[in-house]
Design brief:
Jelly Rolls; 6-stranded antiparallel β-sheet; single chain; 5-stranded antiparallel β-sheet; mainly beta
Length: about 240
């Protein structure tokens, strides 16, 4: 009997395994291929979490797209990313030679909000343009502070150009005006293009410094970069 039960359990596990790796259907055996969760019913509705405005505002670092029912306002709401606003930028661009471990740039925020993206003037770290790269944001000057966020990876352009690194979902760092932060560009893969990040060659941005892990900061130089912030808000679904 024990052997029979074991075989039955194995069959059940194999039967449900494909569904656990694909879409989940509740009330349906054929969930939509475009949905991760498909809830189907002809007699019942979907009931999201019900919170007062005070309870909603107490949610720590809500993810963009989070949905709830606000019982104070009697409204269904979602957390909206909002439009990007340029925070600080430098437009000069000359070649430099960052180490294979990447390069970093500190900056002083001039506005408060959520850091949604960063643009950096660079080219692909690999001579065959096969490498990807990410940007990490740290508190304070340098990369010994708290890691606040990591961007989605991108494949930088073949030639020097502005490349945009986006921070998605709940992975948005809270930026406070007048505070210092550091962005750290890290290559993933080959760095055969040794001069793959631009440099201004002078102190174009007085609110920060440029450098890399092996050598530290170089106060007279800066990395050409742009930072963008958003101010997410709870928006009612009317």
């Amino acid at each position: 009997m024990k052997t029979k039960n074991t075989i039955t359990l194995i069959i059940i596990l194999f039967a449900i395994m494909p569904k656990s790796q694909a879409q989940l259907g509740i009330g349906t055996q054929t969930p939509s291929l475009s949905a991760q969760l498909d809830v189907s019913s002809t007699s019942k509705g979907f009931l999201p979490p019900r919170l007062t405005s005070t309870q909603r505002d107490a949610i720590s670092n809500p993810a963009i797209g989070l949905v709830l029912y606000n019982s104070t306002l009697d409204q269904l709401q979602y957390y909206k990313r909002g439009a990007e606003t340029l925070d600080a930028n430098s437009t000069a661009a000359n070649q430099t030679s960052p180490a294979a471990t990447g390069a970093y740039q500190s900056f002083t925020a001039v506005a408060s909000g959520k850091l949604s993206s960063v643009e950096i003037n660079l080219r692909n770290p690999a001579s065959d343009n096969s490498s990807t790269a990410i940007v990490k944001i740290y508190s304070g000057a340098g990369i010994n502070g708290t890691l606040l966020a990591t961007s989605d990876p991108i494949t930088p352009s073949a030639g020097y150009n502005w490349n945009k690194f986006n921070f998605s979902g709940s992975n948005l760092a809270t930026i406070t005006a007048s505070a210092v932060y550091t962005l750290f560009v890290t290559p993933i893969g080959s760095t055969s293009n040794y001069t793959w990040i631009s440099q201004t060659g002078y102190d174009a941005y007085s609110g920060g410094q440029w450098g890399w892990p092996e050598s530290g900061f170089f106060p007279t130089s800066d990395m050409p970069f742009k930072t963008y912030i958003v101010s997410p808000t709870w928006t009612s679904l009317l």
